[in-house]
Request: fold
Amino acid sequence: MDVLYGARNGMSMFLLQPYVPMHTSSSFLLQPNFLHGFSFSSHLVFVLVLSITWAIKRSKMDGHQHSKERLKNSNFLYYKPTLFSSLCLSLFYLILCIFNCSVWNGHCWSHEKLPTQLDLVLRTFVWFVISMYLHVEFYRSKEKKFPMFLRVWWNLYFFMCCSFIIIDLVFCRKLRILPTHLWVLDFGSVLIGSFLCYAGFFGKRDEEETPLLEEPLLNGGACKKSAEDDASPYSNASFLSILTFSWAGHIISAGNKKTLDLGDVPLLADDDRVNGVFSVFRDKLEWDSRNCHSDGIGTLKLSKALFLSVWKEVLWSCFFSLLYTFTSYVGPYLIDAFVQHLDGYQEFQHEGYVLVSAFIAAKLVECLAQRHWFFRIQRAGMRGRAALVAMIFHKGLLLSSQSRQGNSCGEIINLISVDAEMVGEFSWYMIDLWLVPTQVGLALLILYKNLGPTSLVALVASIAVMLANIPFGKLEERFQTKMMEAKDMRMKSMSEIMRNMRTLKLQGWEMRFLSRILELRKVETAWLKKKAFASAVATFLYYGAPTFMSVAAFGACLSLGVPLTPGRILSAVAAFRILQEPIYNLPDTISVLAQTKVSLDRIASFLRLNELPPVAVEKLPEASEVAIKINNGCFSWDLSTENPTLKDLNFQVLHGMRVAVCGAVGSGKSSLLSCILGEVPKISGTIEMMEKRAYVAQSPWIQSGTVQDNVLFGKEMDRERYERVLGACLLKKDLEILPFRDQTIIGERGINLSGGQKQRIQIARALYQDADIYLFDDPFSAVDAHTGTHLFKVMRDGMITQAGKYNDNLNSGTDFMELVGAHKKALSTLDSMETSCNTQQLTAESSSSHMKDGLCNIESRIQELSKEEERDQLNGKTDEITGQNGQLIQEEEREKGNVGLSVYWKYVTELHGGALVPLILLAQILFLLLQIASNYWMAWAAPVSEDAEPRVRGSLLIVVYVVLALGSSICVLVRALIQAIAGYKTATLLFNKMHTCLFRAPMSFFDATPSGRILNRASTDQSAVDVSIPFQIGSVAFSIIQLLGIIAVMSQVAWQVFVVFIPTVAACIWYQRYYITAARELSRFVGVRNAPIIQHFAESISGLTTIRSFNQESRFMRETLHLIDGHSQPKFHNASAMEWLCFRLDMLSSITFAFSLVIMISMPMGVINPSIAGLAVTYGLNLNALQALVIWNLSNLDNKIISVERILQYTCIPRESPLVVEANRPDRNWPSDGQIDVNDLQVRYAPHMPLVLKGLTCSFAKGMKIGIVGRTGSGKSTLIQTLFRIIEPASGQILIDGVDISTIGLHDLRSRLSIIPQDPTMFEGTVRSNLDPLEEYTDEQIWEALVKCHLREVSKKEEKLYSAVAENGENWSMGQRQLVCLGRVLLKKSKVLVLDEATASVDTVADNLIQRTLKQHFSNSTVITIAHRISSVLDSDKVLLLDNGIIVEYDSPTRLLENKLSAFAKLVTAYIMR
Reply:
């Protein structure tokens, strides 16, 4: 057929120089004979390879095996569509062969027509053979994927088809008449070829296969899919459903019918779960580290491993992005021809409709490619983030003690919440690194076609723009690094404050620590400000870059005499407009690249930290009689110091033996247990121990969850053993008090449990494990040492000074005798109060009890601990928050339904009432008007053709264009600067409001709110407000303005476009409203599901020693992976829902564009100005993208604004009473006496809860020492909390020196009282900052306090008062921390002092010293003591015994002991029997 030759002969022209024909010899590769000859040869080679392969397989295969396994292969993914596609191609080419024969029958055959016909005949035969191979041979094979030669062939075939269609598109305008079957041939081949490539890549056979003859007997039928596969709509979706994102419609439909819950979100497909990608990522990273001779993990290795973990998704994204790029330049390439057609120049019949068809087809492919590009790249980012978070947690479980001290919990949380998130977000930009040069190259080719050699000027301009990015990239990286360092410091401090908020409020320090957070934020804001201004200047430069390039190119054309016609100008303008996107994205790409590099550097630095040596502790065989053995052990927490923590350790512990380790505060007792666990770095020696071990820490570590979960700690439920352990640890009575018994959820750090309950749960956890070795670090706070055959080890200065049996050590005197003597002295008070006979009898019974043989099994240990816990219960360490009718920790609050306009309004008007917003909008409107005006000027002023007379001089043409272009660039600069100022200032205001409200919130808020939720808002949400929200709000406004501008331009040419545009916009809005209800909840789920990850991580790091001692690292890792999947689950479906929406919006906007094109070519000649019509098409090319961008930005903003909504939630927290009441401030020396009067005090924890204190009335005279005792839940701690107004009374009052404490400010009250809390708290900083956070005292006063509280060893440190204190004081022992708390009250010298089990963490000697110090320095103060040791309250002036919120007894200890039936007397008797 002649037309076919015409189409191919048109290829002999050089693509980019339409004016100059090429030589015939150089166009041979584009001749039809060569192309069809190449296709014929390729098909022939392939059919030969296929035939040989088929013959070899048939010769090796047994016929019986064929029939037996025939049906089991029917579950091959995409097998049937592939077979059908191959048959369709064979039939398709057969029809074309017949059609060509019928058309050419009336013409003379020639040698030029023969290659085309032979090619079609061979194609028909080859694809029929492929179909037969798939049906007959592959159908019966065991191959898990399509054969490699088939997959290679499908890709080669697709490449050939794409080449043919590009040639047709390029030269179709040279034809006089365009054959329809030519387009059908090319487009049909491309579509089917693309599917075959997809099927070849993703097609696979189900892994689980059952022989056909055995299947009914074993399974009773066909194998069922797992529930998880059924719950994953993506993995089970068809090809068409995946292509159109229809599989995501189910969750959108569900969200439109009702408010989504977490249970409505489908599970992830197996490929998207973190378990698989993390395994690959970890293996690649470890393999690379092992095989490369370098120092640990670097940024390059980390990036390489990350890429190899998600390479499939990245390559698919590259393919779709490349396809999108090529199709997006079809429009600019054809604009010149379109304008020429409208001006009356037509090269073949129906050229206009062909051009419109090409425009529309390219636009449809462009939309599909873009949607799948975005979807795939988001999947890659989600997987990469999940792998990084899992790797960071995995590394955290292995950190050594030194590494943990150098990296606080807050810093590590930043790695998860900010850095890993940043790497995930980089997936959006990674393609730009190579796509931008590709887009620039294609644009320059189009410019070369239209402008000739002068386009080289545009090339130079583009290179200049690229080079200008280098300094800005370095600035961005520097600013980002500094900002992240400042954020680390802030989050580190914030994490520590959230853990110790109760201490801050009791001491009245919360505002001081708030000012510290605000100071850290100022540093962060300074770098944020610089970063914002740098981005603003970059935006100005890169918005002006396309204008600069166009000015340079058009100016060169005029200088060299190259004629400028409207078609060429508009084609170049369209290319520049498309080029504007990569140029505009370039600063963002460089910025994000810099930020990502910083984040990867930080993560790699963390992954290089030292780990706990896996062979630090050697395992003894199970049959060994020795349980623990240390030879020549030398250990140090700090390997850089010359003085080791523990030295010259040589001892062994036999199986079944009970060992007590004694020593003064700071002697190394806890360090000894830590070195046995392998936590202390070993300098020399060996440690051997049995594998099964259980550990009870001195400071209780309770995991968030139910009581049952904490006791089981990963082991399966053994109901009988479980009940026995609960009874032995006296937890059953506590469970009766709790609202949901053992299913009650424990708050963070056991916040809703008393100290005794937390310790008993710890012990129960250890006992339930049935371990070989039990390590208890002061579990009962100075329980008497057992006599008899127990072996003792006495520590001093990190050395074992004595080792032997109790009696032997007692008779030898020295250190051990000093400790025992101190305890006897503590009991001497009882001897003066009790009769000698009773005391001797009790002592004899106690000695007899403790002389029994050691316990041999776990049951006997439980009975022994039961006795100890019974005495703890009688004394009642601390109160528990009682009377709660529901769980303390509730599901995180989230708003439901629409994000209210009030959220947007509050954000926009936060700064200066929104005064800057109109200025930003005005600058953007002026920019758009000037930009349209500049393009309109060029299209109007340029001559219609080369022969036409120009309307204006060339110099005037360029001058006006330059003025308009510069004006638009200046508007962009003004807009960017104002937007940057408004963004960072608004973020700062919201930050200050949220943190002020947080620090003023009542303690009940922190009891019920895990710190992970608060840190999530302070980190992730605040980062979004800092960076993302200003950009998102600006994008919405700017894209709407641009859309209105495009519609205005198009309506100037064809007002009829409104007939389609209005219903299309209505449909788009309907789709957006239909989509947003589900997407909004999914976005909220993403925020809600992120907090548990942070919470779990922070909790795990704080209890790392306990986790490792129970060998529970793998379980905690599994829980983390589950939580990560829980976060990825709504994130994945949120991304898919977004693409579902954008695909449909793209299709609708394409209809609008197509309708406008049809109107233009349908109008009679001369009705419309071709130049203006071309301008409308130039802008209309972006219509679908911009229309979808408006809806996408609105939806994305609706999702992102949730971060503002979550921050605003925390600005509405109920506040405590005022810190200062100016009208009622107490005297400066108040309280001067310390007289406390309690009058009919009634307290409840919430208005709907029962009373905890039920009308207490009593008086504590000035200077008296009051001891408060009672059972757990009796109200002791509630009374203390009411005294400090942590809880406000329901009725009644407390008077201190006649002043009603409810009438004065909280700061005036708490700053005048002193307390030594049960849990000693130290903050990261120095010794001085811990003793005097408010900086009220001199160094001399502080040294005096240190001497009084027996911390003289501070003087031995090199930096004295400025010696470093690690986070949470972890480089100080528990006893030393308690002594620091004592030093604080000694500095304060208040007239009212509260001791809440102040000596629970020190030995008896230190206890006696503390008691003596308190008597000496607080003799004139009112001292209220809640203590475990009875000796601490026996010398009190009065003892107050509470039970169930009522005063049972209140008198002097002597009088209470005289009555043997009194509750206090019974308690003392139980204590002596210890």
About this structure: The CA atoms of residues 646 and 798 lie 4 Å apart. Residues 510-560 form the longest helix (51 residues). The two ends are 110 Å apart (CA to CA).
